[in-house]
Design goal:
With 376 residues, the protein is α/β, with parallel strands linked by helices. It has 2 domains: 138 residues, 3-Layer(aba) Sandwich (Rossmann fold), CATH 3.40.50.2300; 189 residues, Hypothetical protein af1432. It has 16 helices and 5 strands. The chain has a 5-stranded parallel β-sheet with strand order 2-1-3-4-5, sandwiched between helices. Bound molecules: fe (ii) ion. The site of fe (ii) ion has 7 residues, from loops.
């Protein structure tokens, strides 16, 4: 085997960067001592840790004792050929290893068939003698980059799998909590689902993207989860609430946000859940935010929540007709509710895209100021 002598040029530091922390050990296999020593010397100058093997058997013994990221092997050797060594190394790769040992074949034969066979067996690349060390440097750099990208892709995939699993666990935990709220207050089941749908329809009509619409839907379906902390007697009281009972009710946005906060997958939902009772004029709770200080998702959720709450039958009163609900939302435009959301709401009502068919009695009745401001 022949090869150009290693140059004495300065070491290319781009090869000796962080990749070497993981990819630093190379095994050079050649039955000609002068050739393997020359290749080893060149690679050591680049910063690699290089071991040498005199034939395939020696290489496999060393390979069994130490992990190499790269094996550079001659083809024609006594005993195990470089091609068989390549196959053995590929067969030893561990399932799921994103960057198993790569093999580069060095061949003196000019036959195209040797190169094709090497690549077929999984070689990363091949050199035909005589080869230049510049070409070897370039090939090893390219290999390091490919291994780095493979590891990154593997990490992203692993992270995605973990996030998916976490999401699934979180969804199961939240579903159990939602069921517990439903058990306390059967009205909440239909209400949260409808509010999620209405909030998503509003967000979509306002031109928000798929991700924001999904957050609105999710926030709607969970917005009253904090009512798990509200006493059953208050939730199901068949009469108007006392001020102290309202105080208990007013805790639920914060309780809900605190329940959801530890679940990373639901982080975007916490803010609308916490703020869905804030009002445009600052009269809401828990923080008395006003105007655009209130997150937009919460402003949308507020209209969705109020319109469904007014329209639905409750333990203490019958649901209101659509026209009455529209009038109340209109009255609250720029006072309790974001004007833009109100306009969008009215537009969607005109198109009959907000309300589902009425289940309750829709009886005409007088509506108190407190109920308009905080009906849900
Ligand atoms: Fe609420």
């Amino acid at each position: 085997m022949t090869a150009e002598a290693p140059t004495t040029a300065p070491v290319d530091v781009s090869v000796t960067a962080t990749e070497l922390v993981i990819d630093k050990d190379i095994l050079v296999v050649d039955d000609e001592p002068s050739i393997r020593d020359m290749i080893a010397l060149f690679l050591r100058r680049l910063g690699f840790v290089v071991d040498c093997a005199k034939d395939g058997k020696d290489a496999l013994e060393q390979f069994a004792a130490k992990r190499y990221f790269l094996v550079i092997t001659d083809v024609g050797m006594p005993g195990i050929s470089g091609m068989d060594l390549l196959s053995e190394i590929k067969a030893l790769a561990t399932d799921g290893d994103p960057a198993p040992t790569d093999v580069i074949i060095v061949t003196g034969k000019s036959a195209e068939a040797v190169a094709v066979e090497a690549l077929r067996r999984g070689a990363y690349d091949y050199f035909r003698k005589p080869f230049s060390f510049d070409a070897m440097r370039f090939t090893v750099q390219r290999l390091l980059e490919r291994r780095r990208l493979r590891r990154q892709a593997h990490q992203v995939h692993t992270l995605q799998v973990r996030i998916d699993a976490e999401k699934s666990h979180a969804q199961q935990a939240v579903a159990a909590l939602v069921e517990a709220v439903y058990a306390k207050d059967s009205y909440t089941r239909g209400h949260m689902e409808r509010v999620g749908r209405i909030a998503a329809v509003l967000g979509k009509h306002m031109g928000r993207g798929d991700e924001e619409v999904e957050i609105l839907y999710r926030a709607g379906t969970l917005h009253d989860i904090g009512k798990i902390g509200t006493p059953d007697l208050v939730l199901n009281k068949p009469a108007s609430l006392t001020e102290s009972e309202w105080e208990t009710i007013r805790l639920h946005p914060v309780v809900g946000a605190n329940i959801l906060a530890p679940i990373r997958a639901l982080e975007p939902v916490c803010s609308p859940v916490r703020c869905h009772h804030e009002r445009w004029d600052g009269s809401g709770y828990p923080s008395k935010m006003a105007g655009k200080d209130i997150p937009e998702s919460a402003r949308i959720l507020a209209v969705a929540d109020v319109c469904d709450a007014l329209h639905s039958d409750r333990a203490y009163r019958a649901g209101l007709p659509v026209e009455t609900v529209r009038a109340i939302i209109h009255e609250g435009r720029g006072k309790l509710f974001d004007p833009e959301v109100c306009d969008c709401f009215q537009d969607l009502c005109d198109k009959q895209l907000i309300f589902e068919p009425m289940v309750g009695s829709a009886a005409e009745r007088r509506v108190g100021d407190a109920e308009v401001a905080h009906p849900c």
